[in-house]
Inverse folding.
DNA sequence: CCGATATACTTGCTTTGTTAAATATTAAAC
DNA sequence: GTTTAATATTTAACAAAGCAAGTATATCGG
């Protein structure tokens, strides 16, 4: 008697896998871009976050840039050494570390702004502006969901 | 004279970052599920791909499962040892390695089928069936794009 | 056939991811 | 005020990602 097929969703229609594949696709040109200046994808995210939001505590950066705090801690040192950011400890709460982007970090972002815009423009052209906006809307909505199962409460 | 702001897209509307954040969100419950059987997220993807497509060469698996070949190479050995897959070298081209899922690997997939379906159902309920399908359609379309810039040809 | 290329993986090394256990400061509760 | 409990990060240790260079076939041009 034949076993019933395991019947998971086709990987193409599996949300986690689809998100991953889509991201790989999108990251291709961006990796090419970043490779030229020697910044890693993660450092780039950190830079973008502090550039966008201004000086932030490590925990907030980790949250915004999708990094674990421990990973962030490790990469901050080198980033300061490379002159991309500055770190300070606010006197009113000396547990915290606040990171700000440096002029050199800003310069790095500016240096990639044109390329970055071109990549985005190309994607918009290939994919369609409306669909891209729609996709971003859906992704934004997805992030706001509460998916913690009733498993743990 | 003030410099023009670097003007990158807000990270919230940056596709790479949005995809990453969305994926983190979606992976939460799945990580809980996989933790119970000790398979890593990557091994799970490999299993799912060979289960779905049948025996595949390493390069193809790497492509489908979004892994680097080098990462795949390093995880195949342990997976064979765990009895999840089998590896063979086709005599007609001894450079290649072909991986197939084992009965035990199939069993592992079956063991998670129910949980997996439940997670998906919950997501469908929270997010809405229509929107979820729409999102999957958009992601699938995105994967089919050709984004290689005219940069290199 | 034979050297030159191209393929398909492997390995070595550095950076990140992950988890668990410290450290350092603050804030709270006697 | 001093222990006690929270916060905010740091460290340690080991698996996995990512990149560059190396190895083992296969294939091709002459």
């Amino acid at each position: 008697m034949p076993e019933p097929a395991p019947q998971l969703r086709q990987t193409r229609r599996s949300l986690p896998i689809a998100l991953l594949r889509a991201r790989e696709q999108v990251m291709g040109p961006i990796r090419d871009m970043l490779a030229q200046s020697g910044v890693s994808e993660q450092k780039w995210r950190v830079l973008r976050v502090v550039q966008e939001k201004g000086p932030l505590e490590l925990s907030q950066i980790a949250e915004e840039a999708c990094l674990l705090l421990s990973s962030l801690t490790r990469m901050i040192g080198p980033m300061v050494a490379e002159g991309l950011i500055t770190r300070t400890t606010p006197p009113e709460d000396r547990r915290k570390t606040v990171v700000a982007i440096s002029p050199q970090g800003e310069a790095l972002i500016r240096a990639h702004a044109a390329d970055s815009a071109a990549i985005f423009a190309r994607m918009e052209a290939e994919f369609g502006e409306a669909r891209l906006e729609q996709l971003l809307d859906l992704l934004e909505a997805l992030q706001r969901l509460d998916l913690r199962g009733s498993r743990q409460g």
Remarks:
- Residues 57-59, 69-70, 72-74, 93, 95-97 of chain B lie near DNA strand C (CB under 10 Å from a C1').
